[in-house]
Structure formats: structure tokens, C-alpha cells
Design brief:
The complex is a heterodimer of chains A (about 240) and B (about 400). In chain A, about 35% of the residues lie in helices and about 25% in strands. Chain A is globular and about 50 Å long. Chain B is elongated. Classes of the chains: A alpha/beta (about 240), B alpha+beta (about 400). The structure holds adenosine-5'-triphosphate and magnesium ion (MG).
Chain lengths: ~240, ~400
């Protein structure tokens, strides 16, 4: 279940209540998010669309604990993250959030294996356990035999798959994807979307994805539009596809 | 677990042209630092090795060197009869000595330098039993003959074996070369003290010092007590090794302070180089850092990671500086001994301790240059850094 009217019962995995986000630029306040509400249940696959500058990235940053709202509260799995100290929030991110970025954000001097292993260095897993997890994650994204390759030796699509492996390796509570196919050609983009779809259907991952790509939005169970600082439920998927084309 | 060190290793390697500024700055500073200290060490080692534990040096009370003040023949006789003095048969091993300064041209520059000319007694080689004649022979008592330290022929013109030289109004022949084991005596010229007195028209019953060979190092106390308790004596007694160690302090302090000042100025520049390198590393990698922070690495991890990187760079610099000065080890140079105003040849001594100090110095520079960039890296807002491409 996904709701945007703040009427969720309290059982949702993610609960956003009355969130404002203001930036001040050159002494002027800009209100990016205004009294935004959102409830997302476990296992949901949500797509966010909206014009450039509407605040999609801002929303994901708040949900992922990379930034704090000006007002309002965000609760994930019973933890209110809006009042955590910076150190606590960092630990919370390590435990609960898998980030997937438009530009992949792999560490160029580390190979695929080492990139995927990074989140596990923050766990108590032993070296051999880490290896098992990394290999499993790379197998899911179909790159197990590329684990010694460096990012520059991989195509964009492969880099993004390594990034997805890194995002899922520590089995986070949910995945946040900011335009995961924004920098890819159609074919690579479809492979990434297939992968995200599989993570949703086979592994029951909770996925929140920002996208400009109608084909990407189509994969989600729910489509939300961000407009003038609030979320509105999207039209039916066939209408979205038709409307944007 | 912190951010893996391999990340820093590879980052430095990937961006080595930027690291080179810091590396060379630190290498140069460490090199100068070690070179200066090894100079001081060499100077000190040369003087200290001149003394031995079982010799006692007697000079005028209150004098800071044997160049100042006098020891009379009467006093020498009391010294010869003092307890603790070693004997060769019945002859006490005491060398009353006269020291003068004579100018000789340096081979290196052609300009005159002061050479310490020491008038000794015929048993000087028994008193200083570590000194050996390596070429020619010892002087004949009563003749105008010279034996010179092994550094002398190479350092000055005209003091080779067989040469005849003029100084102090007399004509002298070099008849032998002695090896004093790298000590200050290796830069000296020795002759018969009585001949020296005659040539210089000095009174024959006045000496500047008397060196006594003791039966054992432990005999010093007994010897010293007996001499200082004697109301006829107005002298200071020191263990020879202590006397020379003390002599070296002014010069070594001077070199150390000078070296410290130069190294500090250079360190200032090197720290700036390290700062610059690290700030640009942080700027170039702001998105990588933000990604690590997003994944869940804390601010302390980021700070430690960049400090490790700064230390890595400075360690390479320190190592390079050490390697650069290593060839100096054993290289002979000369300087004025401020206590005797005479020229002293000595060798740079690049010891393991100095190398370790150099590395620590390098790491300190890296740490100072690394802290502000590391703190900046950790304090940039993550969300904002992720937006930048
Ligand atoms: N740190 C900041 N300081 C000031 N303004 C900011 C800051 N970050 C974002 N903004 C502004 O907030 C608004 C929302 O930005 P955001 O990046 O969330 O939009 P978006 O929907 O992700 O856009 P796009 O589709 O282009 O990625 C924009 O007007 C942006 O300029
Ligand atoms: Mg955006």
C-alpha cells in the first residue's frame, strides 16, 4: 500500500508526515517540499516522477538520511530518523539504506569486488562471510566473473549493476534509486530495470525510484508525481505511458 | 571496520603527479634535517672518540680548554707520582703537552687553516695507546721532526711524509703518519714538546696540559682525589672522554640550531605542499567521499582515511630524503673547532637513529598538512557533494 494523504494506519514501513524542506539561496527561502505525506509498505516498488527541480532528489535524500527536513517527521521501520544525531544517522544508513545513483558512484580505484564489499566493512561479518555475500550479490546482477574488473573496464550498464550489487549486499531495509537509468542507453536501461523488477518480485525488496523515463516508471507498482512540493498519485500506468509519449 | 587502506594506496598511485609536490617538499626537508644532524653527530663522534676512559686530562683550574692556562713542571711531577697512574716499568705514563696553532693551506681552497700542533712527550703513544704509527716512524726526541694525523696529508698542502715545512721560525721534517681512529688527533701535528718550546722560545717548565694514562678507568677517582686535595696543585682533572665530549657541545649545538632553523623554514614550505596536495585530493574526490558517507562510513572514518593518505605520502617523502642523504655517510669534511680555533676533519654520520628521526619528522609534517584537509573532507554536507558532478 502506498498513500500520500497522511492517512496511513501506522503500520507502513516508511511514514513521512508533514515534511517541509526549505533551502535559502541568496537570502531567499525556497520551499521545495511542503507538508508532504507518504506511507510506503514493505515490499512496495514506487516510482517518483516530476519536473526537473521539483524536489525528487531532495525527497530521496531526506528518506535516505542524507539530509534533514526543515519540519515534519520521517519514520522508517519504527525509527524516527528526523531527530537522530549525525553519527546515529550514519549508522542507520549503513544498516537500512541501499543507494543507487544516476552516475553509479563506484570508487574508481577499487575493483568490482572491493566496491561491493564496502558496505560489509561496516558489519561484523568475517572476511570469508563477506566474500560469500559479495559473490552472491554479484551473481544476482550477473557479474560474478567480473569481480576483479575496475569501473573503467566496465560499460555503463555493468557499472550500474555493480552499484546495485553494492546497494543490496548488506540486505538493507529499502533501496533508493535516483534516476538509475538516466545515463544509460535503452538496452542497458532495460537490463537495469529488469534487475530492479526481479529484486522487487523475487527478493521482495522495497524500492523507491526517481525517474524521468516512462518505461522505468511502468515497472513500478505505484507511480507518484511530485508537484509544487507535494506528492499526488499518478494516473494509471497505461495513461502515463500514453500521456508522456 | 574503517575505509580500507588500499583505497588510499591506489588513490595516491592514481594521482601521483599531484602527490609529487608534497613528496619532494618533505624529502628535501628531511634530507637537510638529517644532513645537518649527521654533521653534528660526526663532529661530536670525532671529538668524543679522541678521549679514552682510562686517561685523565689535567689542565689549569677554571680553563675551558687546554689552550688556556698552564701546568707547571712541578705540578707534572706531582701528577707523575699520583696514585692510579699507569707505569711502563718504573716510568709513569704521563705526557705533559704544549699546544700551538700554525697556519697551513687547505688543499680544497688554498686558503690557510689553523692546524693544532701538539708538543708531546716521547711516551705519548704509550699514554694514548690506541694511536698507531701507520707510515714512517715516531719522532726522535730532541729533533725537529713531525708526525701527523692521517687526515693531515689529505687536508693540507705540504704536510706529506718526507716533506720539510717551516713554521714558528723552525724547519721541520714530516717523518711519520699516525692513525688515531677517526678522532680529533687525526687532524693534529705532533712533535717533541721540548723542541717546540725551544723553537717558539717558550719557557721549558710550563705546559698546557698533562695527560695521564691510568691503571684502569676506575682509578680516576683515586687519582683525582689525590691531585685536587694537594694544596700545591691548582688544576682541574677530567676524564679525557668527558673533556672532549664537552668540547664538542658548542659546535654541535651551533650546527643543531642552524639545522633546526633551516629545517623549520623548509618544513613550513613542505607542510604547505602537503596541505595543497591533500586539499586537491579532497576536492577531486568529494563525490567518492560523499558516496562512502552515504554507504555509512562515519566522519571519523573519513578523517582517518585522509590522514593515512597524508602519512603515506609523507612517509614516501621521508624515505626518499633518507635515501638521498645516505651517500653522505662517511664523507669527510672539515670545520673550525671553536674551543681550540683549529681546523678539524670529521665525517658525516648518518646513523639509524637519525634516519628514524627523519621519518618521524616527515610523518609529523604529513600529519600537520593532512589534518585540515581531512577535517574538510569529513565535514562537507553529503547531499550537496552528491549533486556535484
Ligand atoms: N543545497 C541547495 N541549496 C539551495 N537550493 C537547492 C539545494 N539543493 C537543491 N536545491 C534546489 O531545490 C530544488 C529541488 O532540487 P532537486 O534536486 O531535489 O530537484 P529534482 O526534482 O531532483 O530535479 P532533477 O530532476 O533535475 O534532478 C531545485 O530548485 C534546486 O535548485
Ligand atoms: Mg534529481
Amino acid at each position: 500500500m502506498v498513500r500520500v494523504d497522511g492517512s496511513g494506519s501506522g503500520g507502513a514501513l516508511i511514514q513521512v508526515r508533514g515534511v517541509d524542506k526549505n533551502y535559502s539561496r541568496a537570502g531567499e527561502e525556497i520551499h521545495v517540499l511542503q507538508s508532504l505525506n507518504l506511507d510506503v509498505d514493505k515490499g512496495e516498488f514506487v516510482a517518483f516522477m516530476g519536473p526537473s527541480g521539483s524536489g525528487k532528489t531532495t525527497l530521496l535524500n531526506l528518506l535516505g538520511g542524507l539530509d534533514v527536513p526543515t519540519h515534519g517527521s520521517i519514520t522508517v521501520d519504527g525509527d524516527e530518523i528526523t531527530h537522530m544525531s549525525a553519527g546515529k544517522l550514519t549508522q542507520w544508513r549503513a544498516r537500512h539504506v541501499g543507494f543507487i545513483f544516476q552516475m553509479y558512484n563506484l570508487i574508481p580505484v577499487l575493483n568490482a569486488f572491493q566496491n561491493v564489499e564496502l558496505p560489509l566493512l561496516l558489519t561484523k561479518l568475517s572476511k570469508s562471510e563477506r566474500r560469500q555475500h559479495v559473490e552472491a550479490a554479484l551473481t544476482i546482477v550477473g557479474l560474478a566473473e567480473r569481480m576483479n574488473h575496475y569501473p573503467r573496464q566496465l560499460s555503463g550498464g555493468q557499472e550500474q549493476r555493480v552499484a546495485i550489487a553494492r546497494a543490496i549486499v548488506a540486505d538493507p531495509t529499502f533501496l533508493l534509486c535516483d534516476e538509475p537509468t538516466g545515463d544509460l542507453d535503452r538496452k542497458s536501461a532495460d537490463e537495469i530495470l529488469d534487475l530492479l523488477t526481479r529484486l522487487s518480485t523475487e527478493y521482495h525488496k522495497t524500492i523507491l525510484m526517481v525517474t524521468h523515463d516512462p518505461a522505468a516508471a511502468e515497472r513500478a507498482h505505484t507511480l507518484l508525481h511530485l508537484n509544487k512540493g507535494v506528492l499526488v498519485e499518478g494516473a494509471h500506468l497505461d495513461q502515463v505511458a500514453g500521456g508522456v509519449a | 571496520m574503517p575505509i580500507p587502506v588500499v583505497y588510499n594506496f591506489r588513490s595516491v598511485r592514481a594521482r601521483w603527479p599531484s602527490a609529487i609536490v608534497a613528496v619532494l617538499g618533505i624529502a628535501g626537508t628531511v634530507g637537510v634535517f638529517i644532513a645537518m644532524l649527521s654533521l653534528a653527530m660526526g663532529f661530536k663522534a670525532t671529538l668524543v672518540s679522541s678521549g679514552t676512559a682510562d686517561n685523565a686530562l689535567v689542565i689549569r683550574a677554571g680553563a675551558t680548554s687546554e689552550m688556556m692556562g698552564a701546568v707547571t713542571l712541578d705540578e707534572v711531577k706531582i701528577i707523575q707520582d699520583a696514585p692510579g697512574v699507569a707505569r711502563n716499568g718504573s716510568a709513569p705514563l704521563v705526557s705533559p703537552e704544549v699546544v700551538v696553532i700554525a697556519p697551513f693551506p687547505l688543499r680544497a681552497t688554498g686558503t690557510d687553516a689553523n692546524v693544532q700542533v701538539r708538543g708531546v712527550s716521547g711516551n705519548a703513544l704509550l699514554v694514548r695507546d690506541k694511536i698507531k704509527i701507520v707510515q714512517g716512524r715516531f719522532f726522535q726526541p730532541g729533533l725537529s721532526e713531525l708526525v701527523v694525523g692521517r687526515n693531515v696529508p689529505d687536508t693540507y698542502n705540504g704536510l706529506n711524509l718526507g716533506n720539510t715545512v717551516t713554521f714558528g721560525g723552525g724547519k721541520w721534517t714530516v717523518v711519520g703518519i699516525f692513525d688515531a681512529g677517526g678522532s680529533a688527533f687525526d687532524s693534529e701535528v705532533w712533535c717533541d714538546s721540548r723542541v717546540l718550546d725551544q723553537v717558539y722560545k717558550y719557557p721549558e717548565n710550563i705546559f698546557q696540559s698533562a695527560t695521564a694514562h691510568l691503571t684502569s678507568p676506575a682509578a680516576l677517582q683515586e687519582f683525582k682525589d689525590s691531585i685536587t686535595a694537594d694544596p700545591r696543585m691548582n688544576v682541574d682533572v677530567s676524564r679525557e672522554i668527558d673533556y672532549y665530549a664537552k668540547q664538542s657541545t658548542r659546535m654541535t649545538t651551533l650546527i643543531t640550531i642552524l639545522g633546526g632553523v633551516v629545517a623549520s623554514i623548509m618544513a613550513f614550505g613542505a607542510i604547505f605542499g602537503a596541505l595543497n596536495t591533500m586539499y586537491s585530493a579532497v576536492a577531486e574526490r568529494s563525490r567518492e567521499i560523499a558516496t562512502m558517507r552515504a554507504i555509512g562510513f562515519g566522519a571519523p572514518s573519513v578523517i582517518i582515511s585522509f590522514l593515512i593518505e597524508a602519512l603515506l605520502i609523507s612517509f614516501i617523502g621521508g624515505l626518499l630524503g633518507c635515501l638521498a642523504v645516505l651517500p653522505l655517510n662517511g664523507l669527510t669534511t672539515g670545520a673550525m673547532n671553536w674551543q681550540t680555533f683549529s681546523h678539524l676533519a670529521f665525517a658525516f654520520r648518518v646513523t639509524p637513529l637519525l634516519l628514524a628521526m627523519g621519518i618521524i619528522f616527515a610523518l609529523a609534517m604529513g600529519l600537520i598538512g593532512g589534518v585540515p584537509p581531512a577535517v574538510r573532507a569529513a565535514s562537507r554536507p553529503v547531499a550537496q557533494s552528491l549533486r556535484e558532478l
